[in-house]
Amino acid sequence: MNTYVFVYGTLKDGFCNNSCLHRYTTSKLISKGSTLKSYGMMDLGAFPAINIDVSISTIQGEVFEVTSETLLKSLDMLEGYPDFYNRMEVPIVLDGGETVLAWMYYLNNTSTYKNIFITNGQWIEDRYIHTKFIEHPPKRINTYEK
Question: Which of 62, 69, 79, 125 is catalytic?
């Protein structure tokens, strides 16, 4: 059985923590993709986090096939699992249209952070053009991004 991990921040290809995916064993980039369900992508400064209790947009990222339980445990340590981040399997729609189940890390305690959301669900270097402060996010926020 394949184990997939969905990454949306510093673990993405070309970002500072991507080498962690290759540290103990080979992992393989399967595809870019997005979550089937909408969540809230929070801007925590140096990295993003997912708030699973908010529905703003689908989250854009990459799916890696992980071939070692050791690697998954290493990612757990990097992400501060289960105290800072938790993880759950979520359906991810790959760029080719196929849907796979992949582990996604999400923020455990969102109440201690300002509600600054990246409204297009994509962590990029110029992310601040898509950042919006939302004091009390409703269940659904409709935004238009050019």
Answer: 79
